[in-house]
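Case study 2.
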Amino acid sequence: MQNQNRSFDPFRVLSEEERTQHLDAYLRFLSEREGEVDLTGRTMSRREERMRGLEQDGVVWVGEVDREGFRRSMSRERVDSLDPRTQWMLAAAKANEGERYGVELEIARYLRRGGFPGIRSPQLMIYLLMQEAYHCRILVQICRTCGVSFESRDPGWANRALMGMIGALPGRLRWIPVLAAECVGTAVFRLLIEHLGLFEEQPEVRDRLNAFMREIWVDEVLHVAFLRAHLHRAGLAAARALVPLIAGATLRDVPQLGALGITPSQILDALRDGIEIPEEIDWLAAEPSPDPFLLPLAPSALD
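Prediction:
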């Protein structure tokens, strides 16, 4: 798939000139795409206009929906024999579980400290946090389009503890695991988009879901580029080494991905040729494919 598209290496070491150029171009892009930020209201003017338009669309899946299975699974109950569409809904809802919680943690730290450790542009970081907040609203709409109700909630205690530990890391160190997680996120959302054929029999629903998922995917791709510009050789190497571990952890946390046939090795395969550059992004240049991942475990052990 990615061999036919422009892509970039998320672990390539940038020169100082490239870092500056990327961050400046990214800020211009977000200023035009997202508009003015209202930190108190957790909104961005132009994104809010797009979001309200999407929220007002009344397209909803018509047909049988396993609402009870969805509800029980979101309550962390084990539910067997869910249909593939319900598995997809659960995977999409759980893939970004905890974003709202993480956003509020980062904003609280920012208000206390007046900046973000290791980040050159607080304004850019605020844009990114607002995008993550919008992802929570998007996931609500994705589930509503599928015919189920969903409300964002705090993650389990283990994930909350992990977020707290990452937030306590000094300087740029904290962005190493975040970059690895964002790389995995881009692959997961791209693979979920490829599974939208599950909704093929109702094209309006499929197209609406695709629009929502692309909103998240484009953001995630650019978050990777943003974080890459803040890490140097050792940090990028460490992030690269964490990717297989985070891919495996993601499948354990979101078993519905596995039910759809998505495996840790498939996630790594999706990243081998780099990260696809969305067509609307013209300031990221195509780059040579990265070196193959050195897996800490054999693929069979990962799966």
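Confidence is low (pLDDT under 50) at residues 295-303.
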